Every structure is written in structure tokens, then in C-alpha cells.
Predict the structure.
Amino acid sequence: MSKGGGGAGVGGRSGRGASRTGTASAVAGAVGAAAGAGQSAASKAFGAGQAAMIAAARANAAAAGGTAASGAAKAALPAASVKPAAPAAVAKAAAAPTPGGAKTGDVWGALKSVTAASGQEHGLQMVSDVRAKSGLSKEAFDRQALKLARDEKLVLHYKDDAHMARYSDADRAQWVHDPTPAPLRPGGTYYVGMAKRRSESW
């Protein structure tokens, strides 16, 4: 009896140990399966994210390609597709007067034109303005202006020599120059303005 009981006790302990081992194995298996399922889900999510990124990159590339293609297509438009200027606009541009208007070819006519534009019939006009209107060379203009002054058709206003040093050769070239020496003007006289005499008519 005693041995049998002891055997039964050993057997009972063995059975309980086996039961515990089986339970532990089952738990470990369940944990492993859950971990595997978690890893699989994470892997699938990561894969889905990568697929979305690739799709977005392809869409951007396609859009960029479309913009470039559109620009290339515009650049490749034939010249005939460019709308020409209206004939009326072309004619108007061709008929537009050149700056300063037509040249008079003489000092008296140029002085008359510049004086009329100023609105002051007897006002003093700048020699440079009259010269530009005449279209004459410097020598021809100066010669005519000096003759008109001698004939008392117009009055020439000279530049004081005391201030000549501050003007450049280009400035002096615009004025009428009489090379005849004069008191206090050994290098001649430079005239910067002119006006029609009141006694004269156009």
C-alpha cells in the first residue's frame, strides 16, 4: 500500500509536471504566433507606404514631363502662327516724324522754327537748339549765323570768357565761334544764344 501510494504520488507529480510543460509550450507558441502576426502586419504596412511613395513620385515626374512637353510644343510653333502687326500700325510707325522734325537747311529758317515752338517771338534761343534744327555742319552754321548778325537780322549773345574754362570742347563746339580776337577775348568770341531782331520780320 505504501509503495503503491508512493508510486501513485510520483506518477501524479509527473503528470502535473507534463501538464505544466505543455501549457508553457502552448503559451510560448501563442506568443510567437502573435509576434509573427505583428511583424507581418508591420511589413505589409511598410510595403504599402513604399508603394504610395513610388506612386506619388511617378505622378510628379509625369506632371513635370507634361509641363516640359507643353513648353517645347509652344517653342515649336511655326512662325506663321505669330500674329503680324496690323497694317495700319505699321503705316503709322513709318509715317511718324523723326525726333526734331525736318531740317531747314539754313539758320534763319531754323531760328524761325525754334522760336515758334517756344511761343516767344523775340525770345533768346539756344544756339545748340537752332543748330540741331538746321541740320548744317558747324562751319556752315557758324558762317551763316555771323553773316546774319552782321546784316542785323539777328542778335547773338556771347559767353563771358571768365567762365569758359569750366566748359569742355564738346560744349564749345555747339556754340557759334567767331575767331576774330576781341578785347578780353583773345581767342575769339563764343556765342551761345540768338534771337531775331524786333525790327525784322520772318
